[in-house]
Amino acid sequence: xxxxxxxxxxxxxxxxxxxxxxxxxxxxxxxxxxxxxxxxxxxxxxxxxxxxxxxxxxxxxxxxxxxxxxxxxxxxxxxxxxxxxxxxxxxxxxxxxxxxxxxxxxxxxxxxxxxxxxxxxxxxxxxxxxxxxxxxxxxxxxxxxxxxxxxxxxxxxxxxxxxxxxxxxxxxxxxxxxxxxxxxxxxxxxxxxxxxxxxxxxxxxxxxxxxxxxxxxxxxxxxxxxxxxxxxxxxxxxxxxxxxxxxxxxxxxxxxxxxxxxxxxxxxxxxxxxxxxxxxxxxxxxxxxxxxxxxxxxxxxxxxxxxxxxxxxxxxxxxxxxxxxxxxxxxxxx
Length: 334
What we know:
alpha/beta, seven-stranded mixed β-sheet, three-stranded parallel β-sheet, about 35% helix, about 15% strand, globular
């Protein structure tokens, strides 16, 4: 069975954009609000670095890294996500295409199409946009992608190697969160971290990297003490764990789940959740899991929604695609 090998993320020595503001409290006193961790600006920095590395790679005689995004059915949100990924890929010098299939496509037909891409030496990265139609088993489809081309990091080999602190292609959202913590110089060593949400593609890999030893093989460990909370964590216990955390990372899709009384003064709050709601004026907008307006008065640092983790997810997907290309070319030369 083929195994995945990739390189660790090398964070920039530059400190990215962090914005601070003030507000007037109920006593008329000016207070400093949390630093805003600008994921959009950071993603631009990451992609510019990657663009330079890819240009250097190609100047050494290699072809451009290539990515194929598979889209099944007519899901407007998925179409938008894939379009953004293709745009970012082209911006950094990755050759990228969308392969669209009808919602009537069977699971076996989709797996056959994936296997053809696995065998195509001109394809470095394969991404299957989720969710898939109900009659298709997403786990079986994710496991059909060759681990070394699995730029989403969803294959069981990549998940398993990550959990064992081995080199792996890591889910892009989780990797984006870790990269934000590193580049914004958020201390994690010996700190208390709470991850709210236990999804296998986001919450689990974030928790795995936060708690693991940074001196192990993949170099992604952050040496924090980690607590995982989820939908069955009693409300009073969720509040207790969050109030005692130095870092809160939430990924549930429940608007305003994390409120100001649940946050320790000066804590770092990373909001991965994103939900489209209709406000009191009948307008739709995107919000996260955190009561941003109130929590930003308590926290030391906070990510906005939108403009926080989302752009970093796309940037890390491009990073994974380049890693996959490097690994595949290395194998060809052996």
